[in-house]
């Protein structure tokens, strides 16, 4: 069965069957036609167990779809603008962990914000309405209809209410138990996404270029906040010029948008499909074809021959053609990553607490509560004592934690002078990326105090993690709970450090690959790069951007000219290996948002910094951080640090507890 479920031929037959059904019946009576014809259509997914079925609740809750439809009709008559948000909830749910209603969960652990908390979801509406529908379903059929199916059916019914198509929704989804904010940040297509990113994100969910274009047609209903597209009409290339607009945007449309949105407007709403934002029709495609798509991601559909052809096809086709395509693509998307059978659960409450998907590597908060209760206080007191006298040491301690975790995991292998498995090999300390690391003596000092208090108990790996946290706090940054229980590694290899530590010259592709290899995603990359808000860099780590970028004695065109002149004064030659420069000029000892503000002005010091703005999704996320309060950055940075601190840790009987961190 499994080989059949993955067969393109089977999927093709399902799509053709849907096409014929749409053609046979009017959209108002399609579902009844489906049942009267006696079809028992199963949509086959990625495994034999994953089966959705039209009419899944016909016996267990026969009025389920009627209850939902009646509630939709009542709500949409009173608040017609609710259609767009309810459709958007379905999209945002399916793109993160599949269509499992994880978007509705309020919390998955005390320290892990849920998908709802991610910036792309903070302006979603309709959760209270979905709660009311679920209450009615629970009253009619307790613990029967999943929240995931409620979302899918609502999406269909709001589209139909707005004069769009009606289609048979295969049901039988189960609800997920895990919801993680960072996953939503990484997986949801951004407003500023380019066509390469969009196609990749859709493809990762089994959706093709046609699905991308057709489902983008959902933008024919609904509104959007000015901040989601303001950079297109005021500061597109980041030069700070208010007349710097996206050249792909129609000039008359720019003028219209500017009359509604001031440069820093975060509150005003604009129709995504002017004049038709409450009617589901083909006007969206006509606007995109005229270069009047609101978002950069809308305009991107014209940057690829395949997607552009679909845009113009639908712009010139009858509404029925679009309706038919949309129904098929919605069924396709509704199949993404579904849980069925014994997987997941059927939640009685939409936002109920779910459990974490797994226990990661047996780290826990307060690991030393019994064995060394003063351990964390000893580290904190040492940081408080020494960082005020040597504030420039905070960044190296944080950097040491990064460099350690990226090579063999967070195991303190970066501290070793020799490795027991091969005394002749050079250790990570001797690798080029680590030659400028400082703070080894500081760590030794902390470890000596811990050994005096609790001999052979606290690992060097945990000392690094705790010192990094406390150093960030000492510079005005956030504090966070550090799960402990790491053990120390016994192997340290310079070649591995050279290969695994991201270089300051890395491009975006190399950066994302390096982070992905450690289980870290795009948002982790952006957030952890924010650590460059404190510290200094040697001229040698960026001088090629000033003097010999392509090997012809030229300058990196991505670098702001004013900033380049300033850097050349401090680093007068390509071969300066001694001089150091602030990574975040004027604020290099304060943990804040200024690093990101500099990036948007093309003033990132390293090539790896500048690379973050070459990706639409990363740049959009950076813009969101800059426009938000520092507390939001702090909250998300904490999560990324906790995640990095778990990379390939050794626990239990693995590794050892070193008494001397260097040996």
TrEMBL record:
Binding site for Ca(2+) 1: 404, 407, 409, 411, 413, 428
InterPro entries in the cross-refs: Haem_peroxidase, Haem_peroxidase_sf, Peroxidase_pln, Peroxidases_AS, Peroxidases_heam-ligand_BS, Secretory_peroxidase
Broadest EC class assigned to this enzyme: oxidoreductase
GO MF terms held by the record: heme binding; lactoperoxidase activity; metal ion binding
Keyword Transferase annotated: no
Annotated site (Transition state stabilizer): 399
Domain Plant heme peroxidase family profile, chain residue ranges per copy: 51-354, 362-663
Positions that bind heme b: 532
Protein name: Peroxidase 1
Source taxonomy: Eukaryota, Viridiplantae, Streptophyta, Embryophyta, Tracheophyta
